[in-house]
Amino acid sequence: MEAHLVLFALTKQGLAEMLDLARGGKTAIWINRGLLDEPDIKRIRAEGFDLTDFVHWIDPVNEVAVAEAVETIKEHHPGQVLYIERV
Hints:
The model has no long low-confidence stretch (mean pLDDT about 90). This protein is globular. It has one domain: Rossmann fold (3-Layer(aba) Sandwich), CATH 3.40.50. The chain has a 4-stranded parallel β-sheet, with helices on both faces. It starts with a strand and ends with a strand. It contains 3 helices and 4 strands, in the order E-H-E-H-E-H-E. With about 90 residues, the protein is an alpha/beta fold.
């Protein structure tokens, strides 16, 4: 599924807001490592969400780490609109 919108959640609160925003649309959601456990990831994917879990934790206040994660997301979703949670 090609997303029309890409969301990047760094915290649990941001994820909850982004899941609400993504319902019913062609949206990809990338999440920080550790926000969800594997059963929750599977459940959310089963609900139809395009969800990607980073393989490592990204410090939400580390601008360099967030920028590197954003570059990774952009590689997978070139030309798509990307919204990034800021903390």
